[in-house]
Amino acid sequence: MRSYPHLTFNKMKKIRYYITLVLFMGIINTGCAQKRVNDIEIVDLKGSVFSVDVKYYTFEFNDSVVSKKIKTWDFGEARRTPFYVEFTKQGFYAKRLDFFSAESRDTNYYFYDKNGFLRDIIAHDTTHIVCDKYGRAIEVKLSGGTTLSSGYDKKGNLINNKFVDENGVILSNYKAKFRDNKLVSERRYGERGKLNSVREYEYNSDSNTVEITDYLYPDKTSTKTIAYMNTNSDVVKMISFDESGKKYKTTTFVYEYDSNKNWVKCYEYKNGVPELLTERIITYHNE
How confident is the model at residue 112, as a pLDDT? Predict the structure, then answer.
């Protein structure tokens, strides 16, 4: 299964949140052994990708007809912002730029040891990284003393992400559970371990859908979303239901693909009205 188009590249076969600081490298289960996979495989791009430049556009209407597309730097509750990434020939991150406005951006450079394991990130707030024997970041120390620690299950799935301040006080915590290598629940905690939300997933392989239920705390109000996939496993429709079970929003996605079957444009419609265009300019090492 794959994620929604606005999440990093929109790709994943096991629906999860893609956490940039941690998922530099991953492993997949191969019987009793574990095998490293590169970043291009993690985000499910195809071919020898060199760079991906992601831009977002909203629309201006004239008599209910789209008359102009407008570049946006910060769209919706998900805070979608443009970004640019480069990959090594081995498929690992080399550089990432996140753009918050025309004048503001963050730049990260990635460095690896002779075994290809991530050993350092040159960024404005990263000071130290500790990796496990598979090359996955398990501890990232930031300037000011904040630390991000991560844990994985035996199959290499990310199951824990915790931020603590310089005094050891929990700022946020993320926990996930997998069954048959599929993500079935996520729990998100705020400061001092306070539970903020729970998300549960139910898969239906016959109809190629995922039913997602969100619980918000402390009131434990719940909403539900059903996501439909196409033959490329990209999300093509999401139907959202409110607390009473009433349908209130249908979001559809229309894709254009390049010759490598990577999507390069995604048109997002809310209740039939065009709301967002995501463009991905993809280049390849062999071009």
Answer: 83
